[in-house]
Amino acid sequence: MKTNKEFNGPFAVYLRSFLAEKRALGYKYIEQERCLYEFDSLSNKYDCSSGLPKKLVMAYIEKKPHWSQSTQQHKVSIARNIAFYLQKHGLSAYLCDTTNVTKVTGNFKPYIFTRQQIEDVFIQADNISPRGSVHSHIFYPVILRMLYGCGLRISEALSLKMKNVDLLKGLLFIYDSKNHKDRIIPMDDSLTAHCRKYAEIIHIVYNDNDYFFKSPKGGCYAKNTVYYRFRELMWKCGISHGGRKNGGPRLHDVRHTFCVHSLHQFLKNGVPHRAALPILSAYMGHSSLQSTARYLRLTAEAFPELAIQIEKEFGHIIPDLEVRLNETD
Predict the structure, then answer these.
(1) In this structure, how many other beta carbons lie within 10 angstroms of the beta carbon of residue 81?
(2) Residue 281: which residues within 8 A CB-CB, separation 6 or more?
(3) Are 148 and 227 part of one and the same domain?
(4) Of the residues 13, 121, 181, 306, which has the fewest C-beta atoms closer than 10 A?
(5) Coil, strand or helix: which one is 316?
(6) Residues 48 and 116 in one domain
(7) Could you tell me which of 75, 65, 68 has the C-alpha nearest to residue 34?
């Protein structure tokens, strides 16, 4: 985003380099840039000769009457990121405590499937019996593998058109998804092979605008249809389900699981978090690095052998779990 604005407050040089660093990592940082200018303007009203003062931070994050809870959480996140950056460069900076600033309603926590549970779901999907012209036995083994193998949102998978699926190169093209993000998703060879077999049966004749997951009735499948069949498959696997309002597991938790399992592989293989998080964030279409960083604590909980490493290396960037993960993240 081009702007004529300039940082002119006491931390101008640091805010400039902070923004440049984020952009260099591939983040658009559009809304965040606006917040940085707002913070810069406010900082001119305070004595910052000794570093980032508590009074400035508290004034910046103070909840306004028209703010939603998520808006204040976003302000808190910006303030904490600025403080971490200033501290990293040797400045004294007040780091606000999110638990004292924002009271978050609800304690939502995604369900993370084990790899064995995911495998069991695939086995049950593969054993769906053929019934007439209904293609459930062909559709579910592929859609579920795609959700887990690519970390897609169910809406993204169901919206895929034939022109968005390159079965030769094994690529998915996601356009204008949540946060207005476009991205190209590579599939592994196994998933690509499943997609090819599926297309050979379902799309003997097609045009580019046909839905890849075309319903027998025309159009694409409904999200609820997939969700209810997913519940049936979990029941057959012995995975208890308390309903959407009682902890799920929900279909969207397959996406959460993909992120946690991917982070586990990155960290287990020694990939630095400075490389792993931006790659995974871009792959999943997250709006910010913070959205991906939340999964570090979930990864530590799911894989205890990495807990000490994660807490030691990444504890300073892991947001508290009380900050709710967006259900459609």
Answers:
(1) 19
(2) 27, 288, 289, 291, 292
(3) yes
(4) 13
(5) helix
(6) no
(7) 75
Could you tell me how many residues make up the chain?
329
Helical ranges in the chain per DSSP H: 12-24, 30-43, 54-61, 69-88, 98-101, 115-126, 136-150, 154-158, 189-202, 223-237, 253-268, 273-284, 289-293, 295-302, 307-314
How many beta carbons lie within 10 A of that of residue 235, not counting itself? 12
User: How far apart are alpha carbons 140 and 185 in whole angstroms?
Assistant: 20
Residue 163 lies in a domain: yes
Burial 196-233 (b: 16+ CB within 10 A, else e): eebbeebbeeeeeebbbbbeeeeebbeeeebeebbbeb
Identity of the amino acid at 149: G
Burial class (CB in 10 A: 0-12, 13-18, 19+), 133: exposed
pLDDT tens digits for 175-200?
877 766 788 999 999 999 999 999 99
Which position has the token pair 């476009």? 182
**187 to 63, 96, 201: CA distances (angstroms):** 43, 41, 20
pTM equals 0.62
In a domain, 6, yes or no: no
C-beta of residue 44 within 8 angstroms of C-beta of residue 86: no
97 & 111 share domain: no
DSSP state of 323: S
What are 95-115's pLDDT values in tens digits?
Answer: 987 654 545 444 457 888 999
Residue with tokens 């169901």: 158
Q: Which residues pair with 211 in a beta bridge?
A: 161
Q: Which of 86-95, 116-125, 144-153, 315-324 has the lowest mean pLDDT?
A: 315-324
**Bridge partners, residue 134, by sequence:** 131
Comparing 31-35, 37-41, 230-234, the range with the smallest average pLDDT is: 31-35
Query: Residue 97: which domain range?
Result: 12-101
Q: How far apart are CA 316 and CA 96, in angstroms?
A: 13
